[in-house]
Structure formats: C-alpha cells, structure tokens
Design goal:
This protein is α+β, with helices and mostly antiparallel strands. Helices cover 38% and strands 24% of the residues. It is globular and about 50 Å long.
C-alpha cells in the first residue's frame, strides 16, 4: 500500500480487510462478485465512457478486482489495477529505516497527487487480512509510531488538500466479510456473510432519503445535543458546515463537492456525518463498550472542553487510546466529527470484543482528530472513533435519534 494511502487508512485506525470464508460456494461467490461489480460501476461509481478508474487491492481481492475491471471496460472506462501486499504494508511499518521516512512520505504523497489528478474514480479494496493484530503491534511501539505521526504531519495539509481539490469519486468496499469482524461478532461466518451481503444490497434509496432529511436539519441547524443513559451529555455548534450523506451512490451535487467525504461511497454503508465547530464542543462522554484495534475498550469516559479531549479514563483497554493521544499532537486530541448510522441490515454485537458498525441504523459515533474531508480544521494524520449505544441526538431540539433508534418520521422518508 502506498504510504499516502496507508496514512489515510491507518490514521483513522480502521481498515477494510478480507479473508476467505467457507461460504458462499465458489460459484455463488463468482456470481456475487459480478453482481457487486456491476452495481458499483453502474450506480455507486457511475463510471462514464473515457473515465479513468484506479482499482487497488490485495491478493484476497483479486477476483473482485477482475470483475470490476471487466465492468469498467464494458462501461467504456479505463481501468488501472494496483496490487498491494500485506507483506509490503507490514514492512513499511516495521522495517523502513527511520532516516528514510520523510523521503518515503514525500515521494508517495506526490504519487498519490498524480493519481488524483488523473483518476475520475478510485476504488479501494482490502489489503490486510488481520488489521487488529498488525495495528496493535505498530502502535505499541510508541516511539516509532510517534516518529511516523510527526513525519506525516509535515505533509498532512498537502495530503488533505489534494483529496478535497480532486474531482475524484471514491468507493471503499467491505465485502467479503472481514475475519476480524467475524471473530468480534461471535457469529458463524455464513451468518455474518449473509448480514453483510444484505447490508450491501439493502434499499439505499431509502437510506439516502433518510440521510438527506437529517442533512437538511444539520445544514440549517445551530446546536446538536447528544445524550445517553450512561451519562454522555455533549453539545456542539454546527457553524454552517454542511453534512455529508454516505449512501450507495452520489448525487450530482455530491459529485461536484469540494470535500472528499461528500464524494465517497462505502459499501456496506449508510450514514450522515458532520464536522462541527471544533472549539464549540463541550460536555462529558461515556462509552460503555467499544472496540479499539481489536481490544475491548470498557467504560471509557472523558470530557471535552472547548473541543479538546481531557481526563481520559477506562476500566480496560485504555492504552489503545492513550497511545494514540501520546503520539498525536493537537489537533489530534480535538473533536472531529459526529455521524449517525442509517443501515437497518447491520446489527451491532455488544458482548465479547464486540462488533460496532458505524453505519448500523441508530449508531452514533463521535470521532476525535482529522476531519478535513468534512470541511473541518483538524489537520492531523490520525482519528479515533467512539461508538455510542442507546444515544439520543437532538438538532435544535428536534429529536432525530432516540435511545439508539432513528425516529420513524426520518427512517421512513420515501
């Protein structure tokens, strides 16, 4: 994986990764790849004749990459495939001599810029089989991780500007199911596969309509309040920043947007997100359970004062967050974004390590760190999400999520 792409994916501490599962059968899998590739090329990416499409993935994703190339070609597009390897990804973090970090970052960022200048569409497929264990190893070496974060910080503004100024449309795929997520969920692979496929193929028109309904309230709104029975009570000011709806396709307005998040499709997906005025965010956050790089984060709690995270504590799993905070200079510790999940087919699992899909209907996620794709001002390589259950969200007093459920007049928008 190129360093620029590595930085973007690694910094948010989440990776879309794939492993082989025993079901569906090979024939069914081939049919699904063809169906999915057709859906992506025709609807999600909406590839037009003559458009350049960069497709990136690892060895597990080769069959789907091939199916995408076929569909792009049939649409009259120009498909360019880029193979990445888990071994190369791991070697970059573990073995690249530190004296070469800055040169590597500068060159790879320039390469990403060249790709963005030429690409009408970028489709990102999985590279790493087991991101949890890899990132646990990377981030536990806090000295090396801190040097990487400092190196990335020097070119972060350029990196963010390139994505926002590009005309490129982005598609990030999360199918077939992720081994880490299967393990977290406690479900058998066949059942998990069915859930993810249903989430990939659900009614995205309805999801988009609900998202647009919440977006209109956010775009016109002033104050958002987020509360939970466990004690979260947070207020934030919107300041006129426009929310992004991330559903199964892009509107004409989204395709023209100057912000990368507005031009991004994730499958499975379905959420609306906004970057508030960072310094406006005040209150207390309590996270009963969350997953942080494969570790259980239990009873995490902290305050936000003028948007800055302070007083972080947790009953277990705290090191995942404290390591991030210790290696990230401000604004890495400032509030970044709020998102509301809208996909009814995704179901969280709150036991064990847990499975916490941010796109699940009613899921509320608070993110600390980078938010430039949404028009925010946190120019920093990293971001870390906190997933809230049973949250209630009010926009200027109007409830859009109540006790972890999107309210009916929003969820049922035609």
């Amino acid at each position: 994986m190129s360093t620029a792409h590595t930085r973007f994916v690694a910094a948010v501490l989440t990776l879309v990764s794939v492993t082989a599962v025993p079901s569906p059968s090979d024939a069914q899998e081939g049919d699904r790849y063809r169906e999915l590739a057709q859906r992506i090329v025709q609807t999600s990416a909406a590839v037009k004749p003559g458009e350049v499409v960069f497709i990136t993935g690892g060895k597990q994703a080769i069959p789907l990459m091939d199916a995408l190339r076929v569909q792009v070609t049939r649409a009259g597009g120009i498909a360019l495939s880029m193979f990445e390897s888990e071994a190369g990804f791991s070697a970059f973090f573990r073995e690249l001599p530190e004296r070469h970090l800055r040169l590597h970052d500068s060159v790879s960022t320039a390469v990403m810029g060249n790709q963005l200048e030429r690409a009408d569409v970028m489709i990102w497929l999985p590279v790493v089989d087991n991101p949890d264990s890899l990132f646990q190893t990377f981030t536990s070496d806090t000295a090396r991780w801190a040097k990487m974060m400092r190196t990335w910080s020097t070119t972060q503004q350029r990196f963010d500007d390139m994505r926002n100024k590009a005309r490129t449309r982005f598609v990030a795929l999360g199918y077939p199911p992720i081994r880490n997520e299967i393990e977290r969920s406690g479900m058998d692979s066949a059942s998990f596969d069915r859930m993810i496929w249903e989430a990939m193929t659900t009614d995205y028109d309805r999801i988009a309509a609900a998202g647009q309904s919440i977006k209109r309230l956010l775009d016109a709104g002033k104050i958002v309040r987020v509360t939970t029975p466990e004690g979260t009570d947070l207020r934030l000011t919107l300041g006129g920043r426009r929310a992004a709806v991330m559903a199964g396709s892009l509107t004409a307005e989204q395709k023209r947007s100057k912000l990368a998040a507005h031009r991004t499709v994730a499958l499975p997906g379905g959420r609306v997100a906004v970057a508030p005025v960072e310094s406006s965010v005040t209150g207390k956050v309590v996270v009963p359970r969350n997953n942080c790089l494969g570790a259980s984060l239990v009873n995490a709690r902290f305050e936000l004062r003028a948007g800055k995270l302070t007083g972080f504590q947790a009953d277990s799993g705290a090191s995942c967050v404290t390591n991030y905070l210790s290696t990230s200079k401000s604004p890495g510790d400032r509030f970044g974004s709020l998102s509301i999940g809208l996909n009814p087919a995704l179901k969280p699992v709150l036991t064990g390590v847990g499975y916490y899909p941010s796109d699940a209907s009613g899921a509320v996620v608070l993110s600390i760190g980078n938010n430039t794709d949404l028009g925010g001002r946190n120019v920093t390589p990293g971001a870390i999400p906190f997933w809230l259950s049973r949250a209630t969200v009010e926009i200027d007093g109007k409830v859009v999520v109540k006790d972890g459920q999107v309210v009916s007049d929003v969820a049922q928008k035609p």
